[in-house]
Amino acid sequence: MKYNRTDFPKDFLFGVATSAYQIEGHAQGGAGQTHWDTFARTPGNVVRNENGDLACDHLNRFPQDLDLVRDGGFDCYRFSTSWARVLPEGRGQVNEAGLDYYDRLADALLERGIRPCATLYHWELPSFLADLGGWRNRDIAGWFADFTEVIMGRIGDRMYSVAPINEPWCVSWLSHFEGHHAPGLRDIRATARAMHHVLLAHGSAIDAMRGLGMSNLGAVFNLEWAEPADDSPEARRAADLYDGIYNRFFLGGVFNKAYPDNVREGLEPYLPAGWQDDFDIIGTPVDWCGLNYYTRKLIAPSETTWPSLQEIAGPLPKTQMGWEIEPAALTRFLTRTKQDYTGDLPILVTENGMASPERQQDSDRIDYLNQHLSAVQDALAQGVPIKGYFIWSLLDNYEWALGYEKRFGLVDVDFQTMERTPKASYTAVQKALTGGTVSLPLAQPAGAMHDHWNLVADIGGTNTRLGVITNGELTDLHKYPTGKLPELLEAFHSLRDEIGTDPRAVVAAGAGPVRNGTIRLTNAQLDLSEDDIAQATGARHTFVINDFTAAAWSVAEISHDNVEVLQGAKHPPTGTRLVVGPGTGLGVGSLLYSNGRYHTVSGEGGHIGLSPRSQDEVEIFNAARLVAPECFFDDTLTLEAEMFLSGTGLPILYQAIELAGGRAKAEPRTARDILQDARDGTDAHAVKAAHMFTTHLGAVMGDLAIVMMPAGGVFLVGGVAEKNRWLFKDAFRDAFNAGGRFSELRRSMNLYVSEQDEFGIVGANNFCKNALRR
Ligand code: FCB
Hints:
Blueprint: E1 13-17, H1 20-23, H2 35-40, H3 58-71, E2 76-80, H4 83-86, H5 96-111, E3 115-121, H6 127-131, H7 140-155, E4 161-165, H8 168-176, H9 188-211, E5 218-228, H10 233-256, H11 261-267, H12 279-282, E6 288-301, E7 309-312, H13 327-342, E8 347-351, H14 363-381, E9 386-392, E10 411-414, E11 419-422, H15 424-433, E12 453-459, E13 463-470, E14 473-481, H16 485-499, E15 505-510, E16 514-515, E17 518-521, E18 526-529, H17 530-537, E19 541-546, H18 547-553, E20 563-567, E21 577-582, E22 586-594, E23 597-600, E24 609-610, H19 615-627, E25 639-640, H20 650-660, H21 671-680, H22 684-708, E26 714-716, H23 719-723, H24 730-737, H25 743-747, E27 751-754, H26 759-773
Parallel strand pairs: 1-2, 1-9, 2-3, 3-4, 5-6, 6-8, 8-9, 12-15, 15-19, 21-26, 26-27
Antiparallel strand pairs: 6-7, 10-11, 12-13, 13-14, 16-17, 17-18, 20-27, 21-22, 22-23, 24-25
Helix pairs in contact: 3-5, 7-9, 8-9, 13-14, 16-17, 18-26, 19-20, 20-22, 21-22, 22-24
Beta-D-fucopyranose (FCB) binds next to loops.
Family: Belongs to the glycosyl hydrolase 1 family.
Catalytic activity: Hydrolysis of terminal, non-reducing beta-D-glucosyl residues with release of beta-D-glucose
GO molecular function: ATP binding; beta-glucosidase activity; D-glucose binding; glucokinase activity
């Protein structure tokens, strides 16, 4: 090589790059299907229909490959994580073997003294997410942030640096406009959306990693210099647009929070509504900027619709890819990036290299590297803060649509035997790099990362419980007096301070209607908004939900250990679930199941009509009219179910029974006393009240179940059921099943009593997990 390590500034990093799908062997180790697997299996997309099923079998051979990185004298190894290897369906269930693999890879790098430089996404999108629209769907930003947390939650502490997405232009334009890469679309609307969403996903992932305490986070762009094919203004305009689409759109979005005018003009009709409001996320500050550079293009106008330009074959020497070799453009890009976008921020060349058919004596590659290192030297001389240079690639590998024929490796791979043989370029680079070291750390600062946690709240009239959720589990529960709004917010704030970091999300459940992000807490008599909570805790995501919603979510993950089975299957099946919770009020919630996920709709639970179920009850209902006249439906004998079937309703029911029995209207008794007497059998009115309570509740639940047909079961939850399990025996079940011609159908339902403590907290937690998964 023309250069040695010592020709570069102190602590200048040399690295080598690869990506997951190109080397790992995607068909192995439990990875889910990706859009590259199916793109490659569709004739005409990839030469010889080659795919990444086995690739370089790096999954099994990585220790040996990392020895090559170490022995080559490299400071850094840039690799990517496969989303579908970690989350086969893109979200939800984790493939532990996949996580373990990246865990071992991280350790193996550190053991060899190599800095792990991760890229979270290098093009293999899980097919499940592709089915949902992939990069066209705005939700991908959230899916990607969740994936980021899963993978970095496991290996982030050992990463030197991380970039979310490799080459946004390839992910969007090349794959959705030109159709050359998966998903192989040729559609301008899909393209515009993908271009915007890929940046939104980038920002969301950076945000997620900051939330975990991570640093040294960057972005990696591929740049291609656009040279006008001639001196005409038309050619200059065409080249400028090519430059806008290819280079300035993505750099501009991330560093200047704006898209170039000439690109925006063409794409505006197709960008997602509200795109202008996303720049705070897209432009979330990063710590460095990575540039991948290979070639330049000659651009001329064309007669097509926008963007009305075409590439012209150029005169410069070309690589095996047919790409012109133009090192000077790398210097221009480095200086321009500093000047227009990144200022003093470190810049790294995160990919540079060439494909060559020469499998051993690749002097062409040595030349190419020398020329581009010269270009880097030129930019350094002009004061560009370049901090590193990475060669693409360590190994010959799966070069996407061009299959295994285009060889980019410093190390030759025989794809029959999987044998690795270093090429002349490897030895040359090794010679240039050995002997020197850099003093930079290998990974994130020790102790900087923390588990992210969520805060869940169950707000009652007098007391509020705040739960700490770590890795999805309740790890701590605190009780505070609810008080007025400032006291309540102070409780949130003090818990945040006690933990020492901002929660990622807060979910607060309480009794009362929710509108526009504010819950009117009827018992506590105050209004609590999601914004208040965000301010008090610093959380990125805040939600207020009512107690019906929380009750419904409390059974989302329920297992047979947490239920008493009154009838039906021992294990509650997955599916839509009906939840009834006689607490302070009669809560009725439904957990709807569709598309593999639970959802709730909010509603009011207590307003169901209740009518006498026997002759003697007619008198009791008549008497109730004296106690609670406002709760009757007109002048019928039908009253609001909540008036009898809840903690506050039971005393009213008891009073009505006393009145009907000829006793004067006495002071109301508490539900607790009434149920105690009923249990002891010491008060006939109490026994009657308890009986009516359970049989009416059973009948109501049976009716609701028939309406909803909840395949996932009917659940009784809540304080009354929790503390008075004895109430819900045969009479309750018989009432549930007494449904005239529908009795048999009712008997076929799965019916459970939930035995979970703290169901409000459990429900808020399940809600939270689901909301963050979006
Ligand atoms: C880059 C990609 C990489 C490889 C090289 C040749 O654009 O990041 O995966 O294909 O080109």
